[in-house]
Amino acid sequence: xxxxxxxxxxxxxxxxxxxxxxxxxxxxxxxxxxxxxxxxxxxxxxxxxxxxxxxxxxxxxxxxxxxxxxxxxxxxxxxxxxxxxxxxxxxxxxxxxxxxxxxxxxxxxxxxxxxxxxxxxxxxxxxxxxxxxxxxxxxxxxxxxxxxxxxxxxxxxxxxxxxxxxxxxxxxxxxxxxxxxxxxxxxxxxxxxxxxxxxxxxxxxxxxxxxxxxxxxxxxxxxxxxx
Length: 227
Description:
This protein is an alpha/beta fold. It has one domain: Rossmann fold, CATH 3.40.50. 41% of the residues lie in helices and 19% in strands. The protein has helices at residues 2-11, 24-35, 84-87, 90-110, 131-145, 172-184, 197-207, 219-224; strands spanning 14-19, 39-46, 57-61, 75-78, 115-119, 150-154, 159-160, 195-196, 213-217. The strands form 2 sheets. A 7-stranded parallel sheet has the order 3-2-1-4-5-6-9, with helices on both faces. The protein has a two-stranded parallel sheet with strand order 7-8.
């Protein structure tokens, strides 16, 4: 009986952390982690309280510029993100999208986390002339330099999802993408097609636990992976 209990305990022992749980992809990541029977603890790093309550959810109210130490976890999901318009300036955008995500990653790695999943963006490149894509690329490079045992980066195109249900404003580019997709989706190249936030979350949740080394998934790959 003790051997059976040991097997059961080891199968339900994943401890995870998530930063950005109030965002569009983060919302689905949190839902999936809480529903996963192999996950025993979910540590959510937030600037404000979550409306979600769950026995295995631990909310850490934090200042991302001065993070506390959290317990060691097996996996970290990074989905902190905004827009330059919402942030108010390019420097403010950089503090959120690059510096906050990187600070969480460094803190998690310092306490033994070895697996990191990142929601990036299509076109991410530190050499991009588009500031948004440049910052996304710089974050990818900074995380790579930290050399985690496993780094899974997903690069979705424009996201589909109901931000208003989360108390957020619909982003104009995403609203435009939805309308264009309704009209021309069947003839659009797959790499241009918007992807649902739910699919992005599902891919991360399915692939990160077993990912080895560094893996980058394009928007096309995200859409074609069956989950």
